[in-house]
């Protein structure tokens, strides 16, 4: 049966791959909404799909570059370079400038609440990213720029070799094999997309979802405007072909690439379109013209996949979403690294996202965020990439043969239209921003104690200071606590994140959690008694409580006088400063160089002498922890010295301030639990108990929640339809 008489496909077999992909995405969303966090089991399948897409990226990229450059003679390469560099530079600049404009709709990243000692990459690390001293290592570490440089160098060197036909056969075979592998993997796209969307819809928080809508909207709007409006208009301004004719010539290439999401399948259609444009422009029909068009097509396919460069937008959005402020060198280098990381086929963007995310110190789940949206954004990426290398393949041969004619009226119209359209998009995105991006308050103020723990402990939180409580005599022994059935714990409510009140007025914190756990393990009631720092030692000596748990520093005098537990946490020294001055406090040497330095120190026998030792020329003011805001807010001081954990917690709750951990500040401060003099048996018990809490994972869970800001592992599951129906049925 001939192809003309072959019956049309019906039923399921008639459904095209893009439709299956859309159905997979919709099914994944439904599964996530219905099953909720249960869909997390599908995450490995989505990750496997993403990893398979990367299999052929580097072999294809290296072979295309070496083959495209190596086929040219040195003379032709030099002439082609002169004709093409300006076009490529123009495409890069227009695309990156458009992305920069789009990113104006994304809020600027706020000043970081914490700055650790500087870890800027040195010149050696920079060169490793760019120069492939060890190509195998560059591949293994995913150094995309170094890999591209390696392929360019070898491609240029091969131009001088005469007998190279066999080499090109091998390289072309690898290219075909890479495309074949991608074709196989794309067949699994509906399954991979289903897994990715189900995991995302079942686990993503609403605030993050609304932010993704802004990113996806900017991505698709930007890519489609560039592909169908801006670039055809520019091309029509310098060639004899009009805007509509360009789109009509490229229609087959754009359609087949969009349907398959593979730009490589558009290459034959682009080549034929470039031949017709060259003929209409008056380029001589010759073997040289054919060679130039083929060389430009193979190179521009790798050099100007403009859709890939929307990695730039992803990184700018990621910096906002993960609250990572980019440094000035990073902002300047990011467009360059984006171009080098985006070279190649659309699948190369996966490796590029991984590389750029690591370079900018963004969290590893940036790749998951990218993959969650890639199923949708991939279409805009592919269409723009096809238009990008079509633009270059049509225009560079005309420059090569001197057939370009600028039409000033059309060029001016194209420029004005570009600025106007992107201005409208940015204005619209900015107007929608309040609806899509919800501001968040202080993370620490929203934290609560674990209800599973507090529900098992009979606790009383007193509001009157310990000094007003009656002394209980010599009862601070393990035996006396068990006999009375009450554990009395001293706390101070101004020690974030160890002991403080949240936005609901509840006493919470790392040490408060440990107080509940200690009472639970002892099988006694808990009585939480507040103390004032100036009376901590006298209250303990008078045995107004059994143990003080409130981020207390270990000192020589305390070790000599009181029963002090083993250190349960250590913290670097930090300074709370105004965010705009944070860079001036990155090292001790920088701080010492500041004139008329004014520092405040919380009233503590550890911090006051330490501040005088490290900063002997500074004017030191002693303040109570609850008065820090008034002192630094009135601009009477330059910074407040604290532990890093307390400083970072305070800065996170007070926008406009940053906790800076300077370098060269000596050993960290040790935090401990304090007990009355002579309570050695209780101290030994607490030491052993703290060690057990570290061994059984309780300590790690509290560090994750209170210090590192990770969600509680046993938090209630996010709303989902299945749980809602089951709850309604029970009611």
SSE inventory with pairings:
Layout: H1 17-35, H2 43-53, H3 57-70, H4 74-102, E1 114-115, H5 123-130, H6 135-140, H7 144-158, H8 165-186, H9 189-203, H10 206-238, H11 243-260, H12 267-281, H13 287-303, H14 311-321, H15 328-341, H16 348-359, H17 366-400, H18 408-436, H19 451-454, E2 459-461, H20 478-484, E3 486-491, E4 494-495, E5 499-501, E6 507-508, H21 510-522, E7 525-530, H22 536-541, E8 547-553, H23 556-561, E9 563-564, E10 569-571, E11 573-578, H24 588-592, E12 598-602, H25 607-614, E13 619-623, H26 628-633, E14 639-643, H27 644-653, E15 657-660, E16 669-675, H28 680-695, H29 698-707, H30 721-730
Parallel strand pairs: 1-15, 2-7, 3-7, 3-8, 12-13, 12-14
Antiparallel strand pairs: 4-5, 5-6, 8-16, 9-16, 10-16, 11-14, 11-15
Helix pairs in contact: 1-9, 2-9, 3-7, 3-8, 3-13, 4-10, 4-13, 4-17, 9-17, 10-11, 10-14, 10-17, 10-18, 11-12, 11-17, 12-13, 12-17, 13-17, 14-16, 15-16, 16-17
